């Protein structure tokens, strides 16, 4: 029998119960721990920071797989749902998941706004720096970028309570700069060109790499943006889809 260990916290925010049920629906025996994992075994963790990264690496060295979850890329409560990001190995676009094509995103009927007209102001989206080393935003990343290219910093709402919504803050802005934030994905939906600094960011296909700042124009490609969201849709699942086993089964097809 396939074995799985779910290291999510028991707090209601993490919904460990739904993940454990989804594992059982996929034929896994859910255990509290496993000293000798091997091929066919699966570890479920929240992001990959601190001790989770060390544990995940140990499992992978034994040939087991690691399933990483986090709040949904477009928000935990996007469209009134209860959403979680899900991928093998890593978070924020650096992991692996099955891309089932355009149908999933298209079925949601999300309207992508036309690209905004050019404007001189640049908005830099600061982040909390929480997550896996190498994937989490570097310390004082936003301030470092501001010194290099100018622009205005919008602090992460988890650090500083915003006085305006993101949509309001984007008024009059010509482009957004991000490390790998969800806010930048919403900016793309609103028609705002985005520059990204984390090479494997999940939104990269619809945006422009910050390394090209001053060498290329911001990306305003409708086809590239749509492709990115269609692919992202397969890395973001509702709690019901996780509980039923559908989400876990699909992501593990990669």
Average of the residue pLDDT scores? 96
The overall strand count is: 11
Shape: globular
Poorly predicted regions are none
Instruction: Tell me which oligomeric state these chains represent.
Output: single chain
Main sheet: which strands, in order across?
Answer: 2-1-3-4-5-11
Percentage of residues assigned to helices: 25-40%
What secondary-structure arrangement, pairings included, does this model have?
Elements: E1 2-6, H1 16-25, E2 28-31, E3 42-46, H2 51-61, E4 65-71, E5 83-88, H3 103-108, E6 121-125, H4 141-149, E7 152-154, H5 166-169, E8 173-178, H6 182-189, E9 194-196, E10 208-209, H7 222-232, E11 236-238, H8 239-244, H9 246-251
Parallel strand pairs: 1-2, 1-3, 3-4, 6-7, 6-8, 8-9, 9-10
Antiparallel strand pairs: 4-5, 5-11
Task: Characterize this entry briefly.
With 254 residues, the protein is α/β, with parallel strands linked by helices.
Task: Give a quick set of tags describing it.
single chain, alpha/beta, 6-stranded mixed beta sheet, globular
Would you write up a description of this structure?
- With 254 residues, the protein is of the alpha/beta class.
- Helix content is 28%, strand content 19%.
- The strands form 2 sheets. Strands 2-1-3-4-5-11 form a 6-stranded mixed sheet.
- Helix 4 (141-149) links the parallel strand 6 (121-125) and strand 7.
- The longest helix has 11 residues, at 51-61.
- The protein starts with a strand and ends with a helix.
């Amino acid at each position: 029998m396939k074995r799985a260990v779910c290291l999510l916290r028991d707090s209601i925010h993490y919904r460990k119960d739904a993940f454990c049920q989804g594992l059982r629906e996929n034929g896994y025996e859910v255990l509290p721990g496993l000293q000798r994992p091997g091929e066919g075994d699966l570890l479920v963790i929240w992001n990959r920071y601190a001790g989770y990264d060390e544990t995940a690496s140990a499992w992978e060295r034994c040939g087991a797989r690691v399933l990483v979850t986090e709040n949904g890329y477009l928000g935990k409560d996007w469209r009134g749902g209860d959403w979680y990001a899900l991928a093998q190995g890593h978070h924020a676009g650096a992991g692996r998941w099955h891309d089932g094509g355009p149908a999933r995103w298209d079925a949601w009927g999300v309207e992508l706004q036309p690209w905004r007209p050019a404007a001189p102001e640049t908005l830099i989206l600061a982040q909390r720096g929480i997550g896996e080393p190498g994937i989490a935003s570097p310390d004082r990343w936003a301030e470092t970028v501001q010194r290099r290219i100018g622009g205005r910093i919008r602090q992460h709402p988890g650090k500083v309570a915003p006085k305006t919504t993101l949509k309001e803050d984007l008024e009059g802005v010509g482009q957004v700069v991000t490390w790998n934030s969800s806010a930048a994905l919403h900016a793309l939906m609103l028609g705002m060109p985005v520059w990204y600094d984390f090479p494997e960011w999940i939104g990269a296909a619809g945006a422009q790499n910050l390394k090209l700042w001053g060498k290329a124009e911001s990306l305003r490609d409708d086809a590239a943006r749509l492709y990115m969201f269609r692919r992202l849709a397969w890395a973001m699942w509702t709690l019901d889809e996780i509980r039923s086993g559908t989400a876990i089964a699909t992501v593990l097809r990669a």
